[in-house]
Amino acid sequence: MRKFIIPIFLTLAFSCTDETLDLLPSVTKKVIDLHAPTTSSPGSLPSGNFIGFNLMDERPVTDNTWDIALRGTTILINGGSKGGDDEPDRTGEGGAYVAVSTYQDLMNVNVDEIKQDGVSSKAIPNGSGNGWYSYDFQNHVISAIPGRTLVIKTHDGRYAKLEILCYYRGCPEVPSMDSESQYYTFNYTIQPNYGVTNFD
Q: In this predicted structure, what is the pLDDT of residue 197?
């Protein structure tokens, strides 16, 4: 009896070990000065093309493989419903939430918090203090809120965390109203394994 039990146990043990070894490590990347302009004028609605970005490939895209799409301060997710005709179609299974956590400390995704874009609301809320940024009405400067991390489910079911560093070209230490805006610099970490919700 023991002759059969021991080989089966060893086979199962090695099988689990092989599956663990097959997992790829998380990958951390940095994007510098991604230009995502809006062509709106004071008193009018925002307009212009959204810039789609694929996190796994680390590049802007113009097809349906985008994970996030940016225009001005608005960040869309490739999952859910369009909020207007000027938005790109949602063809993926993406979602997101804004975590109150530093980028370094956030090591696990809370899948229960993930939401998709809707007709009247976004997974990443827009507006000063609502999502990732605050607006200084006196100096007319947009700043990333410290301790806010974007948690993203990509269009194809991977998970990522993203930290926006600044919204101005060259990432000036102290931006002013004369700084060139709508240039995103951000760090992000992506988990390349489908469905894995932790960042190693």
A: 97
Give the phi and the psi of residue 99 in degrees, each rounded to 5. -90, 135
Summarised one tens digit per residue, pLDDT across range 91-114 is 999 999 999 999 999 999 999 999
What is the DSSP-derived secondary structure letter of residue 157?
S
The pair of structure tokens assigned to 190 is: 């992506």
Q: What is the pLDDT of residues 12-47, one digit of tens each?
A: 444 444 455 689 999 999 999 999 999 876 667 788
Number of other CB atoms surrounding residue 190 within 10 Å = 21
Q: What is the largest CA-CA distance in the chain?
A: 82
Phi, psi (rounded to 5 degrees) for 112: -70, -20
Among 84, 8, 10, 1, which residue's Cα sits nearest to residue 40? 84
What is the Cα–Cα distance from 46 to 103, expressed in whole angstroms? Answer: 29
Pairing of strands 148-153, 159-168: antiparallel
179 φ, ψ (degrees, to nearest 5): -70, 150
Domain borders along the chain are 24-191
Is the whole model's pTM more than 0.70, yes or no?
A: yes
| Helix boundaries (H) for 1-84 | 2-21
Give the pLDDT score at 200. Answer: 86
Residue given tokens 């696990």 in the structure block: 108
Instruction: Please give the Cα distance from 97 to 151 (Å, whole number).
Output: 5
List Cβ neighbours of 132 (8 Å cut-off, separation of 6 or more): 75, 98, 124, 144, 145, 148, 150, 164
